[in-house]
Amino acid sequence: MSSFRGVFVTGTDTEIGKTLVSAILTKAWNATYWKPLQTGLADEAGDTPTVRTLAGLTPDRIISPAYGLKAPLAPLAAASLEGMTINPGRLVLPAVPSPLVVEGAGGLMVPIREDMLMIDLVQQMDLPVVLVARSGLGTINHTLLSLEALRKRGIPVLGVVLSGPENPGNARDIARFGNVRILFSVPQLEQINETVVSEISESVPPLHVCQQQSSQ
Q1: What is the pLDDT averaged over residues 42-71?
Q2: Helix (H, G, I), strand (E, B), or coil: what is residue 216?
Q3: Residues of 23-35 as b/e, b for ≥16 C-beta within 10 angstroms?
Q4: 164 among the known binding-site residues?
Q5: pLDDT tens for residues 84-143?
Q6: Residues 33, 113, 134, 151, CA torsion sign
Q7: How far is CA 62 from CA 41, 102, 110, 144, 191, in A?
Q8: Which helix (DSSP H) or strand (DSSP E) does residue 183 occupy?
Q9: Terminal alpha carbon distance of the chain
Q10: d(CA 8, CA 113)
Q11: Which residues are catalytic?
């Protein structure tokens, strides 16, 4: 594991709150944000402007996506529609002085190329993972499967972030059966803005503390 270089934020599903969690972590750790693979740009501006606004980032703490694709599909499918093949050589960690928060696209088994899944990219980047999971029904199965997939590859897991209404039972069972720490929770929010992100970020332990705890 690359010491203090940052984290890779992935999720147990799509539309699960990875971008919000990435903004919170970037704010909490005074980090730099990078989403290397952005899809769905035909319908929206993408996650980078969202994180920039929510975390109140200056331009020097934002790295533009290596690929910006139009279709709201997995990177492989979106790139294929544009007659493009994603080059892994462009998916290399940039050298930045601050910690880096890298946000993936979708979940761990999302295809990037014919010979590459998102979990392969995680392994290539050699960063510990923050796994974002729903707090409600079904999350134990999805979260434990994702944790098992990461550990089979020898990928370190910094911890899990639960998103949604508070569910102490699910949090307890994920921590217990997944042998993982719940870093923090993101409640169901009526509105998402810079103030909310700043408030939640205050409950996030420092990155070096998270890394020390995850190695214990």
Answers
A1: 96
A2: coil
A3: bbbbbbbebbbbb
A4: no
A5: 999 999 999 998 988 999 999 999 999 999 999 999 999 999 999 999 999 999 999 999
A6: negative
A7: 18, 11, 24, 32, 24
A8: strand 182-186
A9: 14
A10: 19
A11: 35
Whose tokens are 């050589």? That residue is: 89
Question: pLDDT value at position 67?
Answer: 98
CA angle (16, 168, 183) in 5-degree steps: 60
The secondary structure of 111-147, three-state, reads: EEECCEEHHHHHHHHCCCEEEEEECCCCHHHHHHHHH
Q: What is the pTM of this model?
A: 0.94
Pairing state of beta strands 111-113 and 116-117?
antiparallel
**Polymer length in residues for the chain:** 216
Q: Which residues pair with 117 in a beta bridge?
A: 111
Single-letter code of the amino acid located at 77: A
Query: Residue 103 is encoded by which pair of tokens?
Result: 């946000």
Q: What is the DSSP letter of 205?
A: P
94 is in an annotated binding site: no
**pLDDT value for 185:** 95
104 annotated binding-site participant: yes
Rounded CA separation 63/173 (Å): 36
* Tokens of residue 212, six digits: 């020390």
